[in-house]
Specification:
Blueprint: H1 4-14, E1 20-24, E2 30-33, H2 35-41, H3 45-48, H4 62-75, E3 78-86, E4 91-101, E5 107-109, E6 112-114, E7 116-122, H5 124-146, E8 150-156, E9 159-163, H6 165-171, H7 175-178, H8 189-205, E10 208-215, E11 222-233, E12 239-248, H9 250-269, H10 273-292, H11 302-315, E13 324-331, H12 334-341, H13 343-360, E14 366-371, E15 374-380, H14 385-400, E16 403-405, E17 408-410, E18 414-420, H15 428-444, E19 450-452, H16 455-474, E20 480-489, E21 495-506, E22 510-512, H17 518-524, H18 527-548, E23 555-559, H19 562-565, H20 570-581, E24 588-593, H21 601-613, E25 617-623, H22 629-635, E26 640-643, H23 645-648, H24 655-671, E27 674-677, H25 683-691, E28 696-697, E29 706-707, H26 708-719
Parallel strand pairs: 18-19, 21-23, 23-24, 24-25, 25-26, 26-27, 27-28
Antiparallel strand pairs: 1-2, 1-7, 3-4, 4-7, 5-6, 8-9, 8-12, 10-11, 11-12, 13-15, 13-18, 14-15, 16-17, 20-21, 20-28, 20-29, 21-22
Helix pairs in contact: 12-13, 13-14, 18-20
Length: 724
């Protein structure tokens, strides 16, 4: 029968308790909830019976809560932590719920039989505290593992109980090997006794500070470390353990030893003040010499020459002829020596150059090394401007004599820029700037020469700088244009191909010829980007002509530089341009000059082979003006040779030129290579080319480079139909 009095008794007993008390069966089905449960959860007693009480639990915790009852029967105790919803603010709070079997016979209540009794205790604050402690422990662990010092714990007299990962990584010991006094095994044998003595001293005072050497696992070297420790005391002030750090002080020890050595040296010299002063003066003299001279060659430094030049400028009589000159010198192809023989050989060459330059100058003159392979000479007492030119010629000859480097004879040359110092140079830097400009002007004329500065050179340098800046923006601004020069069949008199020629439509300068910017583009590295644009644009136009005149067999020539061929992506660019326009590869011909084979010949040859593997043809431009032309025809795969205009111009009156052109044409026919004559400007030249059997020509006589629209009209007139 139902024991209603027992239920009322339980309610009265637990009403004052903060816990959420309950009675349940062994399966977890609740048969009696306390009033606090209904108040806390907002769940009426009737709805909390059986497993209805689970509605007050967080959904993520319900399964684990029910599953825990399965093991309770075996253990005799039910313990679980879960979140219970608090009705007052609709939040879930962590509780620990415990239940045990009821002592004595089960109680029968209106809600069912009570076999187990339990209570849920709010542990939210404890749970948060645990979380904070765990976070703090994680932060402490991260801190301990992150500090550079080697950390440890000891119970007493050096008996370690724990060592940080840093100690283990440094020494190679395991955690177990460090325990007790096992850590002493990696301490230098000579330091162990003193280390343990330090523990004995620290015991009554509570502070440990000792230095000893620790063996590093990586190389077995012993490095000095300083160990410090403070004791941890209990409530009665007794030492319960030691926490300590071991810090690498090897550098400090070495510094201390150096300082001690210096101190001894200073102490040994204090008896002779005069000697110390003389030594100091000697040091100062050496430092001054080092600041004013180049370490390698012993020549003056840049700063010394600038100071000397400023002094000369301050004394210069503006009304007189220039009384001094500056020669700026740069060795030609010096990088080749470094790359082939090594930097040591390069240094020996620089030393020898310095000696020869000194021998060319008078005692009042100054020679300085400016770094790398650059030198500057300040020549004073110049009676006439020609004196500096004469000196430059003598230097060039002197440096052309061979230099013996590592059992090899090396020949070098130089480029020299000459500036006569006058009232146009207010400061030394202005003189060096103009000398540098003149030197680069000389270098552009070819190695082994000199150039005398003129204001026009500076204007050209400024203009080149401005032009280079504009050139970098030309592609993004869409300022490049393509003109096309027709290539004619001499027999039929029809256009069989066109050569794409880039032009620059500058917003202020107008149409700029390639001669004015191609060299600048190659120096700045922009030639690759420009070449890529030309290739895409020309292929797009060829596609348009193929669509407009489907019966016309027209091929396209595109000029390519050595820098483009050395670009690893060049072959892919060609392939992409052909694919994008769906062009027959045989309609595209890449023009190269003989000069590309002078450097990286093997690389360039491989690229040309890859291009021909696509079906694209290769033409050798300016044929006959370079080096070893015939060997190139034998070594590399070429489809066409283009005879340079220097052989075509005035050819009717030049029997030797006619013979050369005839030989080239016959050679082309013999080895299956097409021949095109460039620069045809007179009818007589065209007639001779026909007579010697040259099948294709181009030049101003037949057609100047024209915009694509004009070429379209020319092709339309040739086929007799309007373009589609």
């Amino acid at each position: 029968m139902t024991d209603e009095g027992a239920g009322d008794g339980l309610s009265g007993l637990v009403t004052s308790l903060p816990q959420l008390v309950f009675g349940c069966r062994g399966s977890g089905e609740r048969t009696w909830p306390s009033p606090q449960w209904a108040v806390f959860t907002g769940l009426p007693a009737a709805r909390s019976l059986a497993f209805g009480w689970l509605a007050a639990l967080h959904p993520d915790d319900r399964r684990a809560t029910v599953d825990a009852w399965a093991g309770a029967a075996t253990t005799g105790e039910y313990v679980v932590e879960h979140r219970i919803r608090r009705a007052s603010d609709d939040t879930y709070r962590w509780h620990q719920t415990r239940a045990v079997p009821l002592q004595g016979p089960p109680l029968t209540l209106p809600g069912g039989t009570v076999e187990w009794v339990g209570a849920s205790v709010d542990v939210e604050d404890l749970y948060r505290l645990r979380l904070e402690v765990a976070q703090a422990e994680e932060q402490l662990r991260t801190l301990v593992e992150g500090v550079p010092q080697l950390l440890w714990r000891s119970c007493d007299m050096g008996n370690w109980t724990w060592a940080s990962p840093q100690w283990l990584n440094f020494t190679g010991q395991t955690q177990e090997e460090t325990h007790g006094r096992g850590w002493l095994n990696v301490v230098h044998p000579e330091d162990r006794e003193a280390t343990m003595a330090a523990w004995s001293v620290a015991r009554p005072h509570g502070n440990l500070d000792v230095e000893f050497r620790v063996r590093r696992a990586d190389d077995g070297a012993y490095l000095w470390h300083r160990t410090r420790s403070m004791p941890v005391r209990d409530g009665q002030g007794r030492i319960v353990e030691w926490l300590g750090t071991t810090t690498d002080v090897q550098d400090l020890k070495e510094l201390q030893e150096q300082q001690q050595t210096l101190l001894v040296q200073l102490q040994n010299r204090t008896h002779d003040l005069a000697g110390e002063i003389r030594e100091r003066q000697g040091v100062e003299a050496r430092l001054r010499h080092a600041a004013e001279h180049d370490d390698l060659t012993g020549l003056c430094s840049r700063s010394f020459l600038l100071d000397r030049l400023e002094l000369v400028l301050s004394r210069q009589d503006n009304r007189a002829l220039p009384r001094c000159a500056v020669l700026f010198l740069d060795l030609d192809r010096f990088k080749l020596v470094n790359d082939s023989l090594g930097h040591q050989a390069g240094d020996l060459l620089l030393v020898e150059v310095g000696k020869r330059l000194r021998a060319c100058l008078g005692p009042q003159d100054t020679v300085a090394r400016f770094g790398g392979d650059e030198f500057a000479l300040l020549v004073e007492g110049v009676g006439h401007p020609d004196a500096a030119v004469t000196l430059a010629g003598r230097i060039i000859k002197v440096l052309q004599r061979p230099v013996r480097l590592e059992q090899r004879e090396v020949f070098t040359s130089c480029s020299i820029g000459i500036v006569h110092v006058d009232h146009n140079h207010p400061v030394a830097e202005a003189v060096l700037r103009d000398a540098d400009i003149a030197m680069y002007h000389a270098k552009r004329q070819g190695s082994g020469g000199y150039a005398v500065f003129s204001p026009a050179m500076r204007d050209n340098a400024v203009e080149a700088l401005e032009l280079g800046t504009d050139l970098r923006n030309a592609i993004s601004r869409g300022e490049f244009r393509l003109h096309y020069q027709p290539i004619y069949d001499t027999a039929a008199g029809t256009v069989t191909g066109v050569e794409a020629l880039v032009r620059w439509q500058h917003p202020q300068r107008g149409l700029v010829s390639p001669a004015a910017f191609i060299a600048l583009a190659e120096e700045s590295g922009l030639i690759r980007e420009i070449g890529h644009w030309v290739l895409r644009e020309a292929c797009t136009q060829l596609r348009a002509w193929c669509d407009a005149f489907p019966g016309l067999n027209l091929y396209l020539n595109v000029n390519t530089s050595g820098a483009e061929l050395r670009d690893p992506a060049y072959v892919a660019h060609v392939r992409e341009a052909l694919s994008a326009m769906q062009l027959d590869p045989g309609k595209l011909q890449i023009e190269v000059t003989e000069s590309i084979f002078l450097q990286h010949a093997q690389l360039v040859g491989g690229v040309l082979s890859s291009i021909r593997a696509l079906g694209v043809r290769v033409a050798l431009d300016d044929f006959g003006t370079g080096y070893s032309s015939l060997s190139y025809l034998d070594r590399y795969q070429v489809d066409t040779i283009k005879i340079d205009r220097s052989f075509v111009a005035g050819m009717p009156a030049r029997p030797k030129a006619i013979a050369i052109v005839r030989a080239v044409v016959e050679l082309g026919h013999a080895i299956g290579i097409g021949v095109v004559a460039e620069g045809v400007e007179e009818d007589a030249e065209l007639q001779v080319l026909r007579e010697v059997g040259c099948n294709c020509v181009q030049g101003y006589l037949l057609g100047r480079p024209l915009p694509a629209s004009d070429i379209t009209g020319l092709l339309a007139a040739q086929v007799g139909t309007a373009p589609r």
